[in-house]
Amino acid sequence: MKLLLISIICCFTLQVSAQTDAENLKKIYTNSLTNGMSYEWLDYLSNQIGGRLSGSLNAEKAVAYTKEEFEKLGLDKVWLQPVMVPRWIRGAPEFAYIETSPGMTTSVNICALGGSVATPANGIKAKLIEVKSYKDLEALGTEKIKGKIVFINSPMQPDLINTFEAYGGCSSERYAGAAEAAKFGAVGTIVRSLNLRLDDYPHTGSMSYGDLPNNKRIPSAAISTNDAELLSGMLALNDNINFSFTQNCKQLEDVQSYNVIGEITGSEFPNEIIVVGGHLDSWDLGDGSHDDGAGVVQSMDVLRLLKESGIKPKRTIRAVLFMNEENGLRGGKKYAEVAKSKKENHVFALESDSGGFTPRGFSFQCSDAMLNKIQSWQPLFEPYLIHYFEAGYSGADIGPLKNDDIVLAGLRPDSQRYFDHHHAANDTFEHVNKRELELGAASMTSLIYLMDKYGTATISNAERLKD
Hints:
Glucose Oxidase, domain 1, eight-stranded mixed beta sheet, disordered N terminus, disordered C terminus
């Protein structure tokens, strides 16, 4: 009889709690859609500051601006966390053309890859050899490659619904292609832009020479998808054509920058820390609105929306705006290093770094038991058309926090248009929809609210009754 009574009380308590949760989520979504700040903040970051490449003046302007906006929110604590970051500069605009015969040229759209060396002042002109992957180079050998420009024409796989899977399938070509081609005597590499549509925008991104000596490094650039198709077609007709490109990029000494951090201290468990964040740096071709201005302002708005909705967190909620995700991940690594040195107890971390498009749900790195617990909250999100709660990748900046106890998560917006803009000159403010951005901020805040309320323990109701 006593056990039955306890069971009835528990069921009633769970029903009341679920009703309270639904009401609080409603408040959060209403506040974000009627009184959100994410779009206004993004407007300033994008249009008043612009692209925020690590080590640049714009990156430092963004640090100062976001710190000031955190302070306006009346948080319990706001601070800057120093971190040394690389400083790579693009220099004068790149220039490239295809030469079919002396004097017969066709200009094409390229951009230097982040971290690349420059060409000689007068550029490079050489014959081309086309491959689908740098892994094909070994079969060709030095005799066929030496003195040529390697054209790596590896399209993103179009039939993959998860566009990040398609991106992951060929991003290594961009990252390692130049280092591998240099081993066979190539004088440069041209890499097809990682973009699922055909357009004239070349897409930059990080590349690495690994341990290749400086005097062996060769310049590497991305070519737009339209021009990659053109170049491939011309090579099919005449493999004796020349390609010429000039770029003026340079790697400078590391400089000091900062992660920007704002915090609401927990009322009951202040030593249990929940992190939400995005990366403040961006590439320099556009203004970084989707990658990752959207994640930055959504993370900032999580703290504001909790306060506006009258929710007092039990655990410490910390928004971290990471510096240098794009070409070094220094901010994420520094944050984890400091957290470890201070023996901080991080229980949950959520990252937004997939654009400001319509939110679909979240992916999680956690135990099966914890995932089952999180999936039990899914009905609370269904009125907002959030349905995706699956195991999967979380985010680059929170990755260094990974251990056996922390739960990691990533916001998953609709990704079909993301790579139209990723790392390109058209990653600009006008391509972000205000309502979609605000829905993402509300979804993130709602998940943070539930994680704070219920924690990361996975003890079952049956075990509670037994105890």
